[in-house]
Amino acid sequence: MPVVVPVAVTLALVIAAAGGALYTRLNADINTFAADGINKERPAANVGGQNILILGSDSRSGDNSKLGGGTGDVGRSDTALLVHVYRDGKHAVAVSIPRDTLVDIPRCRLPNGTWTAPQSGVMFNAAFTVGLTAKGNPACSQNTVEKLTGLRVDHTIVVDFAGFSKITQAVGGVQVCLPKDVYQGDLNPNRGSKGALLFPKGPQTVSGKKALDYVRIRHGIGDGSDIGRIKRQQAFIASLVKKVKAQGLSPTTLLPLAEAAASAITVDPELGSADKLLSFALGLKDIDLHNTKFITLPWRYQGARVAVVQPDADQLWAALRADRTLDGADASGKASSSPKPTRPVSGAGIRLALYNGTTVNGLAARAAAKLKSAGFTVTSVGTAASQNYTSSVVMYGPDAQDQAKVVARAVPGAKLQSGSTPGITVILGSNYALPTPTPTALGSKARSADDDPCADLSYG
């Protein structure tokens, strides 16, 4: 539940602090996962906003077994959102990552302390199952998202079936909308019959297991895909945000939500206490509905799976890294200034080697194409010895300083560094931003938390 659940829980914990015993009980209910599974080879720390990974676990262990939908104790995550909270504290965007997306999973820690070998071209939701435990492997999912995006994940939050059900009851239900009548057979296509009507077409309020059924429906609507289900899940979360905002942040409304959510979420150690959650939440409370956006990772079908579409995806990650909204606006909170006019850069007669110093796949190849179009001669393209460069670096040898300055103008944010090795070498850092997305490319596809809950519910 991006943004709204952490905020509501932490504010409620603060309100409860005067009660002492209640605060202590809620504080004790907060679960954490071990940080030793998070890779040390990570993207550089964020200089702008912060990124929160939200995972929905569908393990059927414990109280979750009463809510149906399959068997087995192994924790799986079929819902994942990367939420970027902008530095200005007034904007947020939640990016849904389809469970079938083909990704590279880096090495991940197993429960016995050993580490797996990296995997290539596997489904995204496989990361959460590494280790085959009921609690899943949030750290592996976090490692995978950082590998996919080149962004550092500041916090990870996992919500399970039972917790989701309790949260929706605590807020008194959430308004949803169905594009058509939905029957039991749509929820379970193996049923063999149409079954009873679960949801009539149109707007309605759901909570508990009914809310869980709504966000799990995949068959019988649109093309029956996970992509269509993601659209309805985004609409549901938007409606939940709207409901909590409308009720107001008072003890009467927040304490039941706090009691439901505190024991329902598992968080990284940096959020593992009420005080830490409070500090985190203070930066989220001023985000309004219209500035809370939902979008799906740029994708296309690859057989029965989903492939990431480039360069669209890297443009999205670059925009978030630069604290640019989906329509290209600056949401860094920094004082604006008129950009200085720049003259075109000509690389005629300048040779350089280019290396990727980040975890963003293909970044050096795309940068090479841009430099070649400006007249530079790129002699080699590859991966740097380290992928933790925060700033791009232009290294130059004797008598190459003047040419290096021209290269630095063509590589935004690059720093010059002299050395004894002849020639010019460029290592791209995480501050190297590809063109930010345009409104027609990304902004027009986004849902806002204040949108009509009946709008744009199905793919296909």
Q: Would you kindly provide a brief summary of this structure?
A:
The protein has about 450 residues and is α/β, with parallel strands linked by helices. It has helices at about 5-15, 20-30, 140-150, 160-170, 185, 210-215, 225-245, 250-260, 275-280, 310-320, 365-375, 400-410; strands at about 30, 50-55, 75-85, 90-95, 100-105, 120-125, 155-160, 175-180, 180-185, 195-200, 200-205, 265, 290-295, 300, 305-310, 350-355, 375-385, 395, 415-420, 425-430, 445-450. The chain is elongated.
Description:
By secondary structure, this protein is α/β, with parallel strands linked by helices. The chain has two domains: about 5-330 and about 445-450, Aminopeptidase (3-Layer(aba) Sandwich); about 350-430, Alpha-Beta Plaits. Helices cover about 30% and strands about 20% of the residues. It has helices spanning about 5-15, 20-30, 140-150, 160-170, 185, 210-215, 225-245, 250-260, 275-280, 310-320, 365-375, 400-410, and strands spanning about 30, 50-55, 75-85, 90-95, 100-105, 120-125, 155-160, 175-180, 180-185, 195-200, 200-205, 265, 290-295, 300, 305-310, 350-355, 375-385, 395, 415-420, 425-430, 445-450. The longest helix has 22 residues, at about 225-245. The radius of gyration is 24 Å and the shape is elongated.
What percent of residues are in strands? Answer: 15-25%
Structural class: alpha/beta
The CATH topology of the largest domain: Aminopeptidase
Specify the CATH architecture of the largest domain: 3-Layer(aba) Sandwich
